[in-house]
């Protein structure tokens, strides 16, 4: 049973889908609110004290991409994007939205609830990511990861990271030189104990990280790919 204090914002214009989501969230022990268009969703997200946001992409008045960017400018509340088409998934992966995860319609309610639970646990720092918190400060050349202050600097300059970006970087830094499969990262960083996540979620988060910490993301100096396997931090 979920913590009844956890509150989820459903941003969905299709009334029947919103009602199904609301019913299942209530059954799982969550509180919820519904917004039926993008403008209302952004307004509620910024004013409300939500623990997670389920955000549809195709919305009236303001699309989900714009809503996601607007939320990320102000807060790090976990966002799971909901898309109806594979083409929209490609858009999510191609844009620096800051979403934590996504699901594609039609989706299994049980899988969605599992992913909601995992994102809430990670947001509350309940996901144990190996030895990522064993050292208070991790230094890799001019990159400094301070796990006590929860901040990253490069050459003394602060780098703004979302929580999932920070958690992934901290985990890889604590395990320098060790390559991890995408499935392993989904379990260790995202908290998916079963394979409920899409491996492309890892790829887009790595891409966002590289854009922020690498001088040239196309020729990385920190986060490397091991062909046919996964990622590691050198």
Characterization of the model:
The structure is a single chain. By secondary structure, this protein is α/β, with parallel strands linked by helices. It folds into two domains: 7-123, Rossmann fold (3-Layer(aba) Sandwich); 137-233, Winged helix-like DNA-binding domain superfamily/Winged helix DNA-binding domain (Arc Repressor Mutant, subunit A). Helices cover 38% and strands 21% of the residues. The strands form three sheets. The chain has a five-stranded parallel β-sheet with strand order 2-1-3-4-5, with helices on both faces. The longest helix is centred in the middle third of the chain and has 15 residues, at 109-123. It starts with 6 loop residues before the first strand and ends with a strand.
**Through-space gap between termini:** 41 Å
- Quickly name the level 1 CATH class of the largest domain: Alpha Beta
**Looking at the structure, what is the overall shape?**
globular
Into how many domains do the coordinates divide? Answer: 2
Residues in helix, %:
25-40%
SSE pattern, N- to C-terminal: EHEHEHEHEHEEEEHEHHEE
Helices, by number, come to: 8
Brief account:
This protein is an alpha/beta fold. It is 38% helix and 21% strand.
List keywords for this structure.
alpha/beta, four-stranded antiparallel beta sheet, Arc Repressor Mutant, subunit A, 234 residues, Rossmann fold, 8 helices, 2 domains, 12 strands
List the helices and strands and how they pair.
Elements: E1 7-11, H1 15-27, E2 31-35, H2 38-47, E3 52-56, H3 64-72, E4 79-83, H4 86-94, E5 101-104, H5 109-123, E6 137-140, E7 143-146, E8 151-154, E9 157-159, H6 163-174, E10 180-181, H7 182-188, H8 199-213, E11 223-226, E12 230-233
Parallel strand pairs: 1-2, 1-3, 3-4, 4-5
Antiparallel strand pairs: 6-7, 7-8, 8-9, 10-12, 11-12
């Amino acid at each position: 049973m979920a913590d009844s204090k956890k509150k989820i914002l459903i941003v969905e214009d299709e009334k029947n889908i919103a009602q199904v989501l609301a019913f299942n969230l209530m059954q799982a022990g969550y509180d919820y609110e519904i917004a039926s268009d993008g403008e209302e969703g952004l307004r509620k997200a910024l004013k409300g004290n939500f623990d997670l946001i389920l955000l549809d992409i195709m919305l009236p008045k303001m699309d989900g991409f714009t809503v996601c960017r607007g939320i990320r400018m102000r807060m790090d509340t976990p966002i799971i994007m909901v898309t109806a088409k594979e083409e929209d998934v490609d858009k999510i992966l191609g844009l620096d939205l800051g979403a934590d995860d996504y699901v594609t319609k039609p989706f299994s309610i049980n899988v969605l609830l599992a992913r909601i639970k995992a994102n809430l646990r990670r947001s509350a720092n309940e996901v144990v990511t190996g030895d990522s918190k064993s050292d208070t400060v991790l230094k890799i050349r001019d990159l400094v990861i301070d796990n006590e202050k929860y901040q990253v600097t490069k050459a003394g300059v602060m780098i703004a990271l979302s929580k999932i970006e920070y958690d992934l970087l901290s985990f890889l830094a604590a395990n320098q030189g060790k390559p991890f499969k995408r499935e392993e990262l989904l379990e260790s960083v995202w908290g998916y104990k079963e394979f409920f996540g899409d491996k492309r979620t890892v790829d887009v988060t790595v891409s966002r990280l590289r854009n922020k910490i690498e001088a040239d993301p196309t020729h990385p100096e920190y986060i490397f790919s091991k062909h046919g396997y996964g990622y590691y931090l050198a």
